[in-house]
Design brief:
- About 35% of the residues lie in helices and about 30% in strands.
- By secondary structure, the chain is of the alpha/beta class.
- It has a single domain, classed as Rossmann fold (3-Layer(aba) Sandwich).
- The strands form three sheets. It has a six-stranded mixed β-sheet, sandwiched between helices. A four-stranded antiparallel β-sheet has the order 2-1-4-5. A two-stranded antiparallel sheet has the order 7-8.
- α5 runs parallel beside α6.
- The protein is globular and about 55 Å long.
- GO terms for molecular function: ATP binding; ATP hydrolysis activity.
């Protein structure tokens, strides 16, 4: 049976500050697939996932993005979130004065309302948090604090894992979620992500490191270079890259 296409990107051109970063990128992601994005700094990896999440820095000048048969470019950032797109940023913003628990409950209920479901109350929310965080031994005390305010890098990543578990998105985009984490923390990230791979949810993850890919085996590895996908393969491409480097596999650093 043919898998449903979740995301289709065609000839995507994107500018940031009037400089073209993506230069005709094409990508298709089907339900249940795990895609890894790799490439040198400045190749366009973060620009791609930021564009998909409607980040204000990114101006689409050409191309088409279809998400679950809808024109993604017609949806604003909140609509994209409610449609099941989740973005884990390299450095999540700190929001003093906004309680983390209140923020997450509001996000869950906005998505439920969007999908025609009734809102959950505080008791249901707390029960769900306890269940989901308990599966992976994640400290839920983070939810008692303000959103990312004064969080360490590791705490911000754990908080995003709680959001993932609670929101259950359909397209999960991870922008270097393994950056700065120790081995145990990376294992927790991998355990959470792998638990969500139910054959329907899809992953698009940016990483420079093979250690995460060892734990979350990608179906496809894409190497971005100068705004396009220059090479695609399976997990063995990541291993080859780790062993030989970019130039040895025919990828030149556009920054040099």
């Amino acid at each position: 049976m043919e898998k449903e296409t979740i995301l289709k990107i065609e000839n995507l051109h994107v500018n940031i500050n009037d400089r073209e970063i993506l230069k005709g990128l094409n990508l298709e992601i089907k339900a249940g697939e795990v895609h890894a994005l790799m490439g040198t700094n400045g190749a366009g990896k973060s620009t791609l996932v930021k564009t998909l999440s409607a980040h204000y820095d990114c101006a689409v000048t050409q191309g088409k993005i279809t998400y679950k048969k809808k024109d993604l470019l017609e949806l604003d950032v909140s609509e994209r979130a409610n449609e099941g797109i989740f973005m884990s940023f390299q450095s999540p913003i700190e929001v003093a004065g906004v309680n983390n628990s209140y923020f997450l409950k509001t996000a869950i209920n906005a998505k439920r309302t969007h999908n025609g479901l009734s809102e959950i109350d505080a008791m249901e929310f707390l029960k769900l948090v306890k269940e989901e965080t308990g599966k992976f031994n994640i400290d839920r005390k983070l939810l008692q604090r303000d959103l990312n305010d004064g969080f360490s890098g590791g705490e911000k990543k754990r908080n995003e894992l709680i959001q993932l578990l609670m929101l259950q998105p359909d397209l999960i985009m991870l922008d270097e979620i393994d950056s700065g984490l120790d081995v145990d923390a990376i294992k927790t990230v991998a355990n959470v992500i792998n638990s969500m791979l139910d054959g329907k949810k899809s992953i698009l993850m940016i990483t420079h490191y093979d250690r995460l890919l060892e734990l979350i085996k990608p179906d496809f590895v894409h190497i971005l270079n100068d705004g396009i996908i220059a090479k695609t393969g399976d997990y063995s491409l990541a291993l080859e890259l780790d062993e030989k480097g970019y130039e040895a596999i025919g990828i030149k650093d556009a920054n040099k």
